[in-house]
Structure formats: C-alpha cells, structure tokens
Design goal:
By secondary structure, this protein is α/β, with parallel strands linked by helices. It is 38% helix and 20% strand. β5 and β6 form a beta hairpin. It is globular and about 60 Å long. The protein starts with a strand and ends with a helix.
Length: 325
C-alpha cells in the first residue's frame, strides 16, 4: 500500500500527515513553523524527517509528498501574493524543495506537489472527505482569513494561472473595512476569524459580550476569535449572537458563490469551522431564507469538512500520491 506525505504550512506549525492511498492516517507529526520565511525549506525538510521517523518500517512505502502553503501558487510552483511570507515572493518553491530533499536525504524519486493550502483542503475533501460522493463542491476555509477551493466534475479546478478559489477577496461591500490585499470590503473582512474578533470587540465596547471579555482577561481590546468560540461552547448567549451575525455574512458570500459556480455542496473547513453547529446553524438558516438555492429541488447543502483540521494535509498527501488532479 502506497503512502503520501501531506505538509500543511500554517502560521505556527507545519502539520504533516502520512496517508495511505485508501485514506488511512498512518502517522502524524507537527513541527514549529519557521520564524523567518527564509527558513521555510529547512522547516519542510524537518517535517519530512519527523514523519518518516514516525513511520518506521513503513517509510519505504512513501511514494510522494505534497505541500500546502498560504499563498497563490503558479502552475510552475512559484509563490505569489505572500503577505505573511514576503521573503518567498516569486520563489520556485516546488523545485527548491525537491532539490533540498535530494541534497539532504536522497529522496529524489518521490513525486512532489505544491499548492495553495485551501486548494489542498479541496483535494482532501474530494479524495477522502465530504466531496467524495458529489464531485461538484466548494470548500471554504475559515481561519484568520478566508480561502477556497473548487471541485468540478470530480477534479480540483485551478483556473488559467492556478489561482482559482480566492473567495476571501471577493468584494461584497466596497465601502467596508480595508483589507491587506489593498481593497475594501472583501468577504474575509466580514466572515473570518479576524472579522469575528472585530465584531466581538465592538460588542464588548457596547457592553454586550461580558463573558467573552472575561475570557480575554477583562480587556475588550484583547478579545480574539478563540475567546468567542470558547464562550459559545459554554452556551453564552452573547457569543452565540456574534456567531449568528457572522453566519449571516457568511451566507451572503456563499450565496454569491453558488450563483456563479453552481455547486452541489458547500463545505466549511478551517479553524473557525471547529465551532461546528454554533456557526453552521445560523449560516444555513440565513442561506436557506435568502438564497434562490437555499431550498427546493436544487437546494445546495452546507456541511462541515469531513476531515476537520486535517483536510489540507490530507489533500496535500492526495496530491503527492496522485490520487486527485
């Protein structure tokens, strides 16, 4: 049985999953993300060594590896639009990673793949998760920002330059908050983890989020999305109201995407999706009540990722295995 390695590069860690070609999680490791973007190659090699050590005797079954990065990835493997990794702008990372692996471990025969992290999540859900049965789905990754992936007719759709799925930078209100991309009112300014924190800080100033502020040490300016999530899990009404507002904005973006791309299913992934039903319920309710595709014969379902936080790593492994294209 063949094994693929999937490396999901995040802001604080690189999650690496060793996945068999039938979707079994064989091993999993986490290493710290590099503090300097220039050390990314070394961190990727460290992640590979860590998981191959964990595989032990099965390390010989590895035939490929994939890497998911928070960046636009061109068809030739070069990185573009890397606000969190500025030193890597234009770097041909795929070729550089292959060369570094050959130099350090002699693993020159592996198939290597590189893609955007949200596109990897789409590949994971297609190969092993919630999109397996449909072949036509949108994956929306909800974290600090918003990413996305498109599954069309059983394949991952990348577009002309490999950049398809940047849902977070779809403008839904040109008079809205400034975005780091240089525009105003992008989707991720209304429905991401950062957006949730902004909503919560506003509510805190208005005296409407007491438990959330308590979890932030009594400092309204220190409120973050994880404080809202923790309070919501406790059943705090103020936190649930914040998720309801976020869910309404999320439904607006989903509705726009559905009108353009006509999926059978919308899959929510990423750290914020860990909120589960507290996010899913209001998003579904808003979508069902406002969208032409919310109900009826051609209704589009909204579900959580079947692979949870591992969707990106599983998808990178699937790309390394070549089980999705």
């Amino acid at each position: 049985m063949s094994i693929g390695l999937g490396l999901d590069v995040g802001g604080t860690k690189i999650l690496t999953c060793a996945v068999s070609d039938d979707g079994e999680l064989v091993a999993e490791t986490r290493v710290d993300s590099p503090k300097s973007p220039g050390l990314l190659l070394e961190a990727l090699v460290e992640a590979v060594e860590s998981v191959t050590d964990a595989l032990g005797a099965r390390a010989g079954d590895v035939v490929g590896a994939g890497v998911g990065v928070p960046s636009l990835v061109a068809a030739d493997g070069a990185l573009f639009s890397t606000p969190n990794l500025p030193a890597l702008e234009g770097l041909p990372l795929q070729a550089a990673f292959a060369e570094r692996l050959r130099a350090t471990s002699g693993r020159g025969s592996w198939h290597l793949a590189l893609d955007n992290d949200a596109t990897c999540a789409a590949a994971g859900e297609l190969a092993f998760g919630a999109a397996r049965e449909t072949g036509d789905a949108l994956i929306i990754t909800l974290g600090t920002g918003i990413g996305g992936g498109i599954v069309s007719r059983g394949r991952v759709f990348r577009g002309a330059s490999g950049f398809a799925g940047e849902f977070g930078h779809m403008v839904i209100d040109p008079t809205g908050p400034a975005c780091h991309c240089g525009r105003h009112g992008c989707f991720e300014q209304f429905a991401s983890g950062n957006a949730l924190a902004r909503l919560a800080r506003r509510a805190a100033v208005e005296g409407q989020a007491d438990r959330v502020v308590e979890l932030a040490g009594g400092q309204p300016g220190e409120v973050r999305g994880e404080h809202v999530l923790e309070a919501a899990r406790e059943g705090d009404p103020g936190a649930e109201a914040l998720f309801a507002e976020l869910g309404r904005y999320l439904a607006v973006g989903i509705d726009n995407l559905v009108e353009v791309l006509d999926p059978a299913l919308v899959i929510l992934a990423g750290g914020l999706a860990a909120a589960g039903e507290v996010l899913l319920r209001p998003a579904r309710a808003a979508f069902e009540s406002s969208s032409r595709r919310g109900q009826g014969e051609h209704a589009v379902g909204i579900v959580l990722a079947g692979l949870g936080e591992r969707a990106g790593a599983f998808g990178a492994a699937a790309l390394g295995l070549g089980v999705v294209g």
